[in-house]
Every structure is written in structure tokens, then in C-alpha cells.
Amino acid sequence: MGDRTAEIGGANDAGKQTNWHKISWRLLKHELRRGELTIMAAAVALAVCAVLSLSVFSERLQLGLVERSAEFLAADRILRSRGDEVPTEWLQRAQQENVASARRVTFNSMAFANDELALVDVKAVSDGYPLRGHLETADEPFTQGVVAEGLPGPGETWVQGSLFQQLNLNLGDTLEVGDSEFIVTRVLSHEPDAGFNVFADSPTVLIHFDGLAATGLIQPGSRVNYNYLFAGSPADLQRFENWLLPQLDEVSQRWRNVQDGDSPLSAALERAERFMLLASLLGVVLAATAVAVAAQRYAQRNFDAVAVMKTLGGRKSQVAKIFTLHLLLLTSASIILGLILGIALQAAVVGWVSGALGYSLPATGSGPYVLAIATGLLCALMFSLYPLLRLLKVPPLRVLRRDLTASGLSRWLHWIISGGTIFLLMVIYSGSAMLSLALFAGGVLAMALLLSISRLFIRASRQAGMQAGSSWRLAMAGLQRRAKENSMQMLSFSVAVMLFLLVLALRHELLEDWRGQLPDDAPNYFVVNVANQQAAPMQAMFERENLPATAMYPIVPGRLTAINGTPVRDAVSKEERDDSEYREGFGRELQLTWQADLPEENTLREGRWFAEGETGVSVESQVADRIGVGIGDELTFLIGADEFSVPVTNIRNVDWNTMQPNFYMVFSPNLIDNMPATYIASFHLPEERRPELYSLFREFPQASLIDVDDILQQVRDVINHVSLAVTFVMVLVIGAGALVLVAQVQASLEEREQELVILRTLGARAALLTRSITYEFVVLGALAGVIATIAMELSIFMLQTQVFNMEASFHWRFWILGPLVGAGVVALLGWSVCWRLLRQQTGNLIRQLT
Hints:
The chain is α+β, with helices and mostly antiparallel strands. The protein contains 23 helices and 22 strands. Strand 7 (174-177) and strand 8 (180-190) form a beta hairpin. Helix 3 (38-69) runs antiparallel to helix 10, helix 11 packs across helix 12 (433-465) and helix 14 packs antiparallel against helix 19.
């Protein structure tokens, strides 16, 4: 304290209103020279660096994912309109906003060739299509294609391979569609926007938009989907979107991006965003915790300075100005340092990741920089508010009595301010209340557990330690003597260890669980429109050719018409009607099936599966919640000309990420099994056997094949992106955790310094003191590791069940790893920080204290 007192006393002007800023500046320079502000400055700089690097990296990685995944729409955005074209002014406005556009019109029609006919999906596209991705064509059906240049010319068409089977086509044959004839010039092997509707089993016939009118197929009342494709920079798209959305008809028009829909790709992108948000939140929370701990240390180190100022006549308002300016100067310098480090770190990591992924990540805007600066200010000011209030409460008498500290402030105020700030940072950063709540609840639970049982653990440890050697007895006596302070230290240790374990669980448990849902032999083809008499021979073919396949699922088209006798809104219409007389429905035809057993990857949420001879229907859980039905409700269906009612027997959870047929409605076998049905299945075909497809399915000419290999690969790419992001976050979390631990150990250095003086004076050897300090930190770390593991397990349970929609699992390895990591890391850091004191002579320690 002596140097600082002389610095302040030598000024001899604490009471002068005009010189308070000079005192603040001199105090800052003095403490910087002494290294007193290292932890505080490092904590703020780390928080800014973590937020900036994580925000920029996550945003650029997410933009890269969405940009590459946009290939599955053939555009960045799509406007879909049923029945009517949109005004030409809308396309002109897109051009004005530098947004490229193209048109795609789709409808079903009959196609004729070689005295055969088949139902096809006609797709007429304009120049520029596709705006994202590419078309691929081949010379033979079911073979690897090459990237196509341009589109079919006038009078030409490219058709999918399955139509070659159905119509016995060859290249050069004539295909009749409506009033027009087209020459088949190429096999259409890949469409970027083929989508993931496995029940859309009609093969595609691709023609140029200019040849559409000549077919005569577009008539008033025709069931036609007009699709308008748009692509451009995020800023240009956002401006166009803001202008367009207020003008859309919500009934017949829909604005879409790749993250909309129920496909595995959109689900994967949504889950990837949650993974990266959660991983980034962990780094932000730990950095904020380091600032909170450092702020406490900052206040304690300045109690003497405030007492001297007040003794020399300084008023409370002047002291407040001095330390507020002191804090602002320190915060500003730390934020600048954090920005420099964050920019350098994210540039290095993005460069490495771009090399690993094989493409450059898109640039980001100014948002992450504003967020990083706001985080630094919020952390420094809010976490320093309570310590600053304590500083102002320090009495002048502390100059004579060092045991006097601030009084009159409730510690609950500190918890409320700190907890509220951390939760606010989480919500601002993530924009997800559920994700923030899951993580925050785990932290609060860890704190509650710690404060309630830490002293019991410390007391039990002391009782056990009294039975051991003198080093253990000394360590346990120190634990008991500093029970309150040790409880606070253990809280910080537990938070640091818990967040480290959470990131580790994300990296090696949840991420692997997600990756495990798409194994290497996951189905990459769907076969649909299989006739009843072909189902058994096809199943036998799968077994004979050693192709892993799902069961053959029967499909019967039907409509939901009423719920408990109340009609549902079934048709999409612009006509005005009294919607109060209707229940929520689907507005379209459903694909219904029946099963004697619960389908794979389905679990029961409510009710029980069908008993033998029982009549009922099983409803998918999200559908049940949307249309508001539960066990025992009566659903009325129309299949063909038959209408019947059936009770809801159970509610199912369905994993839509699996590449197998899934259904909204599954009936008991004795209800619709006598109705005409086709069958669907999925199977895995190795890449090297792809040329065999044509010969394998030659005997099943009516069946249609849907290739989902591209979607599978894209989902795997998404997982690999997330894996890189979480690995990057883990490095930051380790650094932030180490800073928290060092700050907490340094907070107890003064008290330990006093103890060392007394014990050295009484003749204690250095080896004894070294062992006792090591044992004390080992016990603290191990207890913190146990509590952190409990809180981590509960947080993972909430994340698996509420955020990521996964099955809950027990992570036994972390119950071993948590205490070991806590004991080892805390003991190592504690010993390294206290090593300077242990090496000093007793006389030097006494002089420092006086």
C-alpha cells in the first residue's frame, strides 16, 4: 500500500475539484506499472476478443452454410404463387435493387411416347436458371452426369432417368406434352431444386419457358405453381424483401429461403445455428465471469487508496469521479486491445477454416463489432458497479484499522446485477430465450448447489483431513477458516469447469450423436410408386443384392375432413367465409399408411401402440400440437369415396433427420389395408455401384427413384462446419477459464500472505507449506468438479430434450473427467500463482505487509 499512498498523498490536492482527473490518471499509470490491473484489463479484453471473434466467425460460417445450401433452392429466395402470375412490376423492382431473377413454372401433365403414357412433372424455366447451383445431364439413365451448359433449346427437352423406363425412351425420341412435341436430347441427372418431397413421384420433363405457351396446357383454373427465383447480396435481398413482403397474399403466395421447410437440410441448418450459438454463448459467459471476478479483485485492491483519499479530505463525489474515470480509461484501452486481438484471431481462424472447407467464407457486416464494444462496456460497467459502490463506502478509519471494509450493501445486490447482466448478454447475443435460459439455468443451479453444500463438503473434508498427515490437516484447517471465501472461489471454479465440460460435451457427445444419425450407410435413395404386386419382389431384390433398405411402407392418399365432428379448413381459397366454424387442417392431400408395429426412429409421447384387432390412428406430435388433437379425439378422413372416423390412439415423436419414410398419420392395419395402395422404401447404394441402378430396377418400370445423396452430403458438410466452430470455441473457453481461475486465486493472495508470515515465523518448512497449499487447491478443484459435473449433466439434459430434440443420455465419462480436471487444473494454477510467495524470505513478506 505504501507506494500507492505516497502517490496519492504527494498530490496533496484530493480536495480540489479541478484536479480529480489528474489523480485518476496518475493512479491508473501507477497501477499499470505495478501490474495491479493486469487481470481486469485482460478480462475485459478477452470478453471483447471472444465476442468479436466468435460473432464474426459464427456469422461468416453461417452465411457460408446458407449460401452453399441455397443451391438446393436454385436461388437465395423463392416466391411461390399458386394459380396466378405476379405483377411484372415486382420483377422490375428486383432488377432495380440489383437482385437477379428467373422464372420456374411447374405442373403435372400426361406425356406420350412409343404408344405409352406417363404422368410427369413439367418444369418450364427461363434464362438464368438456376441462379444457384447447377444442372447435370448424362447420356444414359442413372449414371453420373456432367454440369450442363445452358438450357434445352427450342423443341428440346431433358427428362429424368425413370421416364426412360416408363416410356421405353431413347435419346432422340419424340415426347408429346400437350399440343407440342419435344426431342429428348439429354438425361436429366441432377436438379439443384429437386426438393425433398419423396411423395412427389412424377419424373421431371424440363423445357424452356419460351416453349410453354405452345403446349396449350396453361388454361384458366389449371393447377399451376408459379415460382420466381431471386439471388443477390444479403443487403440487396433484404431491401427487396422489405419492399415485397407487405404486398404478398398470405393465402396463395409464399416467400421462402433454404431454412424454411421440413427437409433434413433445413432441420440441419437450424440445428447448426443452435450449436454455434450455444458454443459461442459459453465463451461469452465465461469471459463475462472473468470480468466479474476481476472487478471484485479491483475493488479490494483499492480499499486503501479510497481510505487515504477520504483521510486527505476527498469528498465521496470526488472519489466517485476519480474511480469512474479510472474505470472508463481502463475499459477503453482494454476494448481497443480486445478488438485488435479479435480481428487478428478471427482472420487467422477464418483463413484456416476456408482452406479446410475449400471455399472462401462470405464477409460480415458491422454488427459483430458493435456487439463486441457493447459487451466490453456492459461487462466492465455492470460488473464494476457493485465493487465501485463498495469502494465509496470504505471508511477513512481503514487507514488505521485494515480490517474495516465497506458496509451497508447487501451481497444480493451483487448477485442480481451480475446474474442479470450475464443473462442480458446471453439473450442479446443469441436472440434465443430458450437457449439462454437452458444455459443460465444450469449456471444458477450450479451456484445454488454450491452455496448449499460447499460448506458441508469443506467441513467433511476437514474432518477427513484431520485424520491424515500435518500437510492435510493444515490444508483442511485453511479450508474451514476461509469457508465463506472458499465457497465463492469454488463457485467460480465450478462455473469454469462446467462451461468447459459443456463445450467438451458439445464437441464429443452431442455432435457425435448428431453425426451418428447419418451413418455412412444411411439411405441415399428413395423408391416410390411401387405397385402392390411389386413390393415383395423388390424387397427380395434388396436382400439378394445386399442393399440395406427399410421396410416397404404402403401409401394411401386421403384427406382429413373433420375433428370431433367439426369440419377442418381443407382447401386453399381466397373466398371469404366464417373461419370460426372450422378447425385447423392441412389444406392438402395427405399420404396415409398403416403399420402393425411402431416404425423405427419413432417414439411414443402419449398413449400406447395398437393392440391386436384395435382400430385407431397414430398422429405425429408436431401435427397434433398444431391442429390441437389429443388421445381419444375423433378424426374423420376421406379416402376416395369412403369417409370414416377413427379415434386417436397415440401421439408419436418422429425424427425427421433420418433418411427413411416418415408419416403424419399411421393407421392400425385393420382399417385401410383393403384399399388400393402403392409402396415406398429407402435404401443405401454405394457410390461405386451407381451404374447398376438401371439394371437393378429394370424389372420395376413403374417405380420411381429419388436421389437424396446430395442432401445427405450437404447435411454432413453442415456437421463438419459446426465441428470446426465448436473446436474454435473450445480454445477460447480454455483461455477464459484459466483467466477466471487465476483471478480467483489472486483474490486470496493477501490473506495467504499473512498466513505464510505467521507459519514461517512459527518455524513451518517451505515443503510443508507447499504441500498444504497444493492439497487445499486439489480439494477445492475436485469439489468444484463434482458440482460442475452435476450442473453440466442437467444442462445437457435440457439442451438435448428442449433445444436439439435429441434423446437424453447419461455421460458417465464426465463424472470421472470433471473432478479430475477440476483438481488438476485448480491445483496447478493455485500452486503456480502462490509459488512467488513460497519462494520469498520471511523478512520480505513482513515488509510487504507493513
